[in-house]
Amino acid sequence: MGPRSEPPDSPGDAGRDRAPGVEAIAEWLRDTGPGEIPARLCNVAVSLLPVTGAGVTLHTDGLPVRLGASDAQAAYLEDVEATLGEGPGHAALEAGEAVLACDLATGTDARRWPVFAQKATAAGIRAMYSMPLGNETVCVGTLDLYRDTPGRLSDRDLHTARLMARVVTVALLIMPWGDDDGRDEVRWPAGLAREQDEVYQATGMVMAQLGVSAEEALARLRGHAFARDRTVVDVARDVVEHRVRFDHE
């Protein structure tokens, strides 16, 4: 489907000071296919907020799964967090509340996640705001917002960010789930997360090669990726396509 027109109240418009209603966001998603919804919502978030990128990540069985992103930069940073196992998104998931990293280049945020902060700033990102997805008792993922300048979100923008997280949560609940080949082991929202399905497949292959648990196999994949400055998705693809074997290392 071709690009859609930008939602009203985009950054720079006077109307951005007014938070949108759920009905307005639903209208912007009209005629959007299920597999396009997370990325479309990321684009809506960028249009409504003073941020340069956004990503949606689902956390399942210990593995962060990128479902959508507004652009390649945001997708890369979502994969970096999945590879490192650290960052504002992981912190938001664990706390079940928003984590606002207002300056990844200096101060507390840079010290709290030193490796992620270095990767993010090298990619041109100075601030990241992670909103939990779920409810008061269960956090299933995060809406991650990226900005190329440091600074805090205003109260109004933080309200809008939390509204977007609620909309993303509802969208995930109502989307059809399943996989294309009828397997029951791993189920994603329809049409999404094929790359992360490769990570699950690679994790199983590493388990068989080394005789280790799923947690240890995923840790090995992450460690291999980190040591070579790659993402865990890239390494998983090499394992699945038999270019890398862990029992030969």
Topology:
Layout: H1 22-28, H2 37-48, E1 53-60, E2 63-69, H3 72-84, H4 88-95, E3 99-101, H5 107-112, H6 114-122, E4 127-134, E5 139-147, H7 155-174, E6 177-178, E7 188-189, H8 194-210, H9 214-227, H10 232-240
Antiparallel strand pairs: 1-2, 1-5, 3-4, 4-5, 6-7
Please describe what this structure looks like.
This protein is of the alpha+beta class. The protein has 2 domains: 14-178, 2-Layer Sandwich (Beta-Lactamase), CATH 3.30.450.40; 193-248, Orthogonal Bundle (Arc Repressor Mutant, subunit A). The protein has helices at residues 22-28, 37-48, 72-84, 88-95, 107-112, 114-122, 155-174, 194-210, 214-227, 232-240, and strands at 53-60, 63-69, 99-101, 127-134, 139-147, 177-178, 188-189. The strands form 2 sheets. Strands 2-1-5-4-3 form a 5-stranded antiparallel β-sheet, with helices on both faces. A two-stranded antiparallel sheet has the order 6-7. A hairpin with a 4-residue loop joins strand 4 and strand 5 (139-147). Helix 2 runs antiparallel to helix 7 (155-174) and helix 9 (214-227) packs across helix 10. It is globular. The model is unreliable at 1-19 and 179-186 (pLDDT under 50).
